[in-house]
Amino acid sequence: FRSRYCTSKCRKNFGMKRNPMKLKWTKTFRKANGKELAVDTTMDFERRRHVPVKYNRELVSNTLKAMKRVEEIKTRRQRDLWEKRMEASQRQQVKDAVYHLKHNIDMIQDKEVKEIARTDFENAQAIIAERKDRKKAAEKAKLKKKRQVEAALASATVGGMALEDGAKVSAKAAAKAVTKVIAKKAAKKAAH
After folding, report:
1. Positive or negative, the Cα torsion across 98, 103, 109, 115?
2. Which of 97, 100, 145, 178 is the most exposed place for a label (fewest CB within 10 A)?
3. Cβ(114)–Cβ(105) under 8 Å?
4. pTM summary value
5. Element holding 49 (H helix, E strand)
6. CB neighbours of 40 closer than 8 A, spacing ≥ 6?
7. Helix axis angle, 111-155 relative to 57-104, nearest 10°?
8. Which tens digits make up the pLDDT trace of 32-68?
9. What is the mean pLDDT of residues 95-109?
10. What does R_g of the chain's alpha carbons equal in angstroms?
C-alpha cells in the first residue's frame, strides 16, 4: 500500500482540511509566493514520458549529458532567484548596522576598532544615500514620462475632435492619440 502523501504530517494536515497555499512549509506555498522556481523551462525536462524507446547507446549518452547540463542551469537559476530574494534582507542588515553604529559607536573602547567602525559607518551611509538618489531619479523619470503622456493627451485629437479638460476617453483611443502625436513630433523633427 502506497500513500498519496509524502509524510504523515501532510496526511494529517489534509485531514484537518488545511489549505496548503497558506502553510508556509509546503511546496505549494513556496512556489506560489516566489520562494522557489515554479515556472521554468528546466521543469519541462523532468516530465515523465511514458513512451518506450528502444535502447540506443548514443541516445543514452546524449541524455545523460543533457541531464547534467539541465541540472547546472537549474541550480544557477535557483541561486540567482535566492540572491534576488536576499537583496532586501541585505539592505535591511545595512540599515540596522548603520543604526547600531550611529547610536553605540562610543561604547567601543579600542581606538583601531573604533576607526574601522567609523569608516564602515561612513561607507554604509554613502551606500544608503546612493540608493536614495537612484530611487529619486527613477521617480523623477517616471513623473516626467507621465507628464509627457498627459501633455500629449491634452493636445491630441481623437476622431477629429479635440479633447477638452475632463473629457473621458477609452484607454485604447488615448493610446492611439498619444502615438499619433508622438509620430507627428518625430516627423517634424526629421523634416527640420
Report:
1. positive
2. 145
3. yes
4. 0.50
5. none
6. 74, 77
7. 110
8. 998 888 888 888 887 778 888 899 999 999 999 999 9
9. 85
10. 29
